[in-house]
Each structure stands twice: as structure tokens, then as C-alpha cells.
Amino acid sequence: MNQVVFTLNGERTEALVEPRLHLADYLRDTSRLTGTHLGCEHGVCGACTVLIDGQPARSCIAFTVACDGRDVRTIEGFEDDALMKDLRTAFTRDHALQCGFCTPGMLIAARDVVMRCPDADDKRIRSEMSGNLCRCTGYLGIANAINSVIQARRGGGATPAIRTAIAANAPVVQPLAKPWQAFTPADAEAAAPRPAVAAPLDDAGPREGWQRIEESFIANHSPGRVWEIFADTAGVAACLPGASIDEATPTSAKGRIDVRFGPMKASFAGATSLERNETRMEGRIRGGGSDSLTGSRAKADITYRLASEHDRTRVSIVMDYNLQGPLAQFSRSGIVKAFAGRMVAQFGENLNAKLGGGSAPIPLAAGRTAELNAGNVLWQWLWSTIKKLLGLTR
Ligand code: FES
Ligand code: FES
């Protein structure tokens, strides 16, 4: 048993808990704060969302011991919160709940969206809320309710329909947002004009609603040799665990990448555009795909740059990404960063092996696409978090 001391809804809380006890179980079974609901217990549905140090977190996959010294706030802790009051009123008015099971998690996530994205439109709201699932599929009312609160806080920006509805305390009726459509590299060009690849990699920050990961590794060959290898799309894909290419030209590619993330499997099929700047030894890969297993969609904009470092090559990678659907809840977490770090490290090892200058490549089963088992990554991330909390260095 471990002793933990943390703040729960503004009050000091002290407890002796098993290391494996999830925060959601502690909240419901010990503190009797049953407003925190449990749906999937896999971090997918968002029903268990609480705030930890002001950030939305899945209490079903957060260990209680990891909350030592933290500030935890559940739905019961928003009784006197003015913004939450507005959201509750809007949810009621816009029929944003049917069975209500998802509602506590929705409200906490919605409050975060209203505070973090004061200019969000319907599309952005749906994207930001895509990590919270409503099994009654009441999304129209939920999006409308959040939209009305954002508009009201923005003052004069509300549409006439929303202004009338707010004034009359009546439901807001808006057309459904445009359904999500398959992403193509052409969409990326049109939707998000970006600087030419010749610009420095870190010239532009991540666009609104996207996350950024930066990694690098050393390849044991000259930049010229590594640059040659990077021109071979299929060869590069073979170094990336779980990736396979169906067709490739010098400027585009189609393929898929399979990942296993604890109990979840995803197989993203998609298309990318490829650009290379020979002079600067920089390249850009832009594209997107969808996973038929989880219904998640991903868009990514990856830039890489080669630089000489002591007769070897440092490969720097910047990945901007946007995840929607059930996997979106991971997009802002340290888990994704740990996952990406592991992917890049494996990619570097495999590339070195391909170049003949490093350890043997991670074997891929013949004729099959490999899967990256993220279980270890999840564990490594949890362990490093726990070590940080305990002040351990090894
Ligand atoms: Fe935690 Fe579903 S119960 S995300
Ligand atoms: Fe029933 Fe959302 S209202 S799960």
C-alpha cells in the first residue's frame, strides 16, 4: 500500500492505496464521488474525464499513486463554477443529453474547450470533443450547447439563430456539420498553406488543433548516403515498424501503418505527398488516413532534415499531427510522445542496419506487415512518470 496526499475538489485528501488502483475506482468506491462514470475503462470513451492539475485526464487509466501532490477536480467540484453553470444550462436547453451517462465527462471536456479555444467553430468543437463518446449519439445537441456558450462569451459574435435561442432559453437548431471526408494530400494543400519546404523546419509552429512531436537520431553514414536512401520510399517504409507501401512515385505514396496500442489495434490506410529539397537536404511528407477498426482519422505533416555531425548524420524530424475519433484522446498525452520517440528510435536502428552501419534490424515477419506493440511504450511512459513523481533518477 502507498500513501498519497492530494487535493480533491479543493480539499486535502490522504489515503493508503494499492499501487494499481485507478483514480476512477478510488473516486467512486472510496470517495463516493460517483459523478465520474466508467464506460470502456480503456481510456477510449471519456466518460471518466476529470481534471488533474487543470488538465482533462482519463481517471480510468490514471493511477491514484500518480496523483500524489496533484490537484484533482471531479464533476462534483464544479458546483460553484460560473462557466460550468453556463454549460449545464446550455446542455439542458439544447437537449445535449439523453441517458446522461457521458454527460459529466462531456461537461469537463467542454469546459476545457471553451477556455482553451475561445474562437472555436462547430467543426473545431467536434474535433476537440471527438475523444468523448456519447452512446446515445446526441452529438448535435452537445456541439450546439458548447457552441452557444462560446458564442455568448464572445459577445456579439453569435449567429442570429443562436442569439435568439439564448435569449429565449430555447434549443439551438443548427444544421449538422459537414461530415468528415477522406483526406487527400490535395486537401492538405488547400486547407493549410504552409511555407515552402526550403524554410527552416521549426519556422512555423503547429497549426490550431494540431499537436507537434520533435525527435532526432544519428545515422552512421554521411548525409549524402542517407539522403540517397531517403529517396527510396519503399526502402524507408521498410524501416518504419508497421508500415507498408502499396504504390509509390517520387512525389506520392499510398500505403498503411499498423499499430497496436495496449488493447487497441489500429490500421491506418492513407495517401501522402512527398517533397524533397536537394539543396537543403530537407523533405516533407504530408498526408492522412483512416482506420476502419476504430473509425479514427489521422492527418500528419512530417518534415525531416539531414545535418552532418562528426562524419555521421543527424536526422531531425518534426511531426505535426491531428487525430480524430476514438484515438484522439491520446493525442495530447505523453503516451503519444513516448510512442513516437520509440518509433523514431526503431526507425533509426533499422535505417542504420539497412545502411550496414548498426545493429540488426528489428525483424519483420516475411510477407506481413509488422505491428508495433505499444504495451511496452505505455509501460515505459507510466514508469518514467512514476519515477519523476518519486524523484528517482534511475
Ligand atoms: Fe475512462 Fe472510458 S472509462 S475513457
Ligand atoms: Fe447517453 Fe451520452 S447521453 S451516453
Please summarize the sheet with the most strands.
Answer: 8 strands, mixed
Q: What's the gyration radius in Å?
A: 23 Å
Provide the CATH superfamily of the largest domain. START domain
Could you say what the CATH topology of the largest domain is called?
Alpha-D-Glucose-1,6-Bisphosphate, Chain A, domain 4
Low-confidence residue ranges: 171-202, 358-375, 390-394
Total beta strands: 13
Structural classification: alpha+beta
For this structure, the quaternary state is single chain
Overall number of domains? 2
> Which distinct ligands sit in these coordinates?
FE2/S2 (inorganic) cluster
Distance from N terminus to C terminus (CA atoms, Å) equals 22 Å
Please render the helix and strand layout as text.
Blueprint: E1 2-8, E2 11-17, H1 23-30, E3 49-52, E4 55-58, E5 71-73, H2 82-93, H3 103-116, H4 122-128, H5 139-154, H6 160-168, H7 185-191, E6 211-219, H8 223-230, H9 233-239, E7 243-248, E8 252-261, E9 264-277, E10 282-291, E11 297-309, E12 312-324, H10 334-355, E13 372-373, H11 375-390
Parallel strand pairs: 1-5, 8-13
Antiparallel strand pairs: 1-2, 3-4, 3-5, 6-12, 7-8, 8-9, 9-10, 10-11, 11-12
Helix pairs in contact: 2-3, 2-5, 3-5, 10-11
